[in-house]
Amino acid sequence: MPTVPILMPQLGESIAEATIVSLGIRVGDQVKTDQDIIEVETNKAVMSVTTLCDGIVAEVRAAEGQSYAVGSLLGLLEVTDEEVVRTGVETLEGIENKRQAQTHESADHPREANLHFALSDDAYEESPSVVPSVKGLPVPTGVMGAHYISPRMRARMDDLGIREADISAIAGTGAGGRVTVDDLEKFLTYLESWPSSPASPMRLAVADAMRRSWTRPLATVGLPVPIDRLLDHRRAQSPKPGLTLYLLRAFALALKENPATAGYLIGDKVVHPRSYDIGVAVQVNDGVVVPVMRAVDQKPLIELIAEYDEIVDRARRRHLAENDGKGGIATVTNFGTFGLTTGTPIPLPNETLILGIGAGSKQPVWNEELETFLPVTVADLQLTFDHRVVDGGGAGFLLNRVSSLLQQPALL
């Protein structure tokens, strides 16, 4: 019977690998076209690998917990000739025939040989076990390393998948305090006795994003804002909007009034937003995902509630579509949900701004009319920005405008 490969699909244009979460098939299982058979985790979401046709599982070559590159061979299906005709799927036998035909053609036309590629079972990695693209090391504190990295050291780091930040705690013994390859090897040997665990694709993705974010000069400004009016407004709504949604809407309106603050510096140009699409930081297992709410400036708060609740729910379940996390110009985050009153959020590498809000607390605030202190619920706003694009004054103006809108919730 013809054999059809089960391959790791391209799960998104920026996805190069995925980790097997669970295998839903065993040898001998009968499967149908478009059936979910393998659950995989990328650095953005949990997705499913589906079948291209009806068939019987002949081999399963993937293992749970292992990472595989796009195009890797995960298993084989035995199918009928009729099924091949019905679906048009490519069989391993057909791939081998193409390979042999192209081999003969390349021999006849050697100048064109470089235009062909081998199409055979060997073209698919059978057990690639991809090494994650970003690695982190637990490091002790209290020691310093040199900034300069020699070409030999750089090559060794590349072999190990280690970044500069990973070796910042190594005390160099080379000239001028330079960290040598020998220093690195001794450090890695020292860490072998430490407890460790493999980093998840989500953890690695967050680490990579934060590393790239910190290549820019980031600064943070803060402002306390009274939120009693907002809380009163929220209690009167049905369904009740979350505090983060109020922040999201106020942020979008403030940015629309001053779009330059949401610009992104590319070379000698500042690229301005064409749509006020704002991301929402959502805590998930071992990381954070940022689904994007579209055109937030164009929809009143009450119309955003269902859309917000739905996308946050999918984010928590790691069932976001590829485009759900793309195109945001800024992000909001509510670290107050963890009981934190202040923080310094970090914007994504492709964004200039991130706005955070802490937990509210009762504070005595002076009332000029009554000439006395009154208890007021106050929450701290924190705005982190790329200082190449926005200065402290511009960030302060933006933050004050967000504060003003939050104190007029009926306008949202």
Task: Give a verbal description of the structure.
This protein has nine helices and 19 strands. With 412 residues, it is an alpha+beta fold. The protein folds into three domains: 3-123, OB fold (Dihydrolipoamide Acetyltransferase, E2P); 151-198, no CATH class; 203-411, Chloramphenicol acetyltransferase-like domain (Chloramphenicol Acetyltransferase, 2-Layer Sandwich). Strands 9, 12, 15, 16, 17, 18 and 19 form a seven-stranded mixed beta sheet that branches. A four-stranded antiparallel beta sheet has the order 1-8-6-3, with no helix packed on it. Strands 5-4-2-7 form a four-stranded antiparallel beta sheet, with no helix packed on it. Strand 13 (282-284) and strand 14 form a beta hairpin.
Helix content: 25-40%
Main sheet attributes: strand count, strand direction, barrel closure: 7 strands, mixed
By helix and strand content, what is the structural category? alpha+beta
Question: What is the overall pLDDT average?
Answer: 83
- Outline, from the CA principal axes? globular
In total, how many beta strands? 19
Oligomer: single chain
CATH-defined fold name of the largest domain:
Chloramphenicol Acetyltransferase
* H-E order: EEEEEEEEHHHHHEHHEEEEEEHEEEEH
Distance between the termini: 64 Å
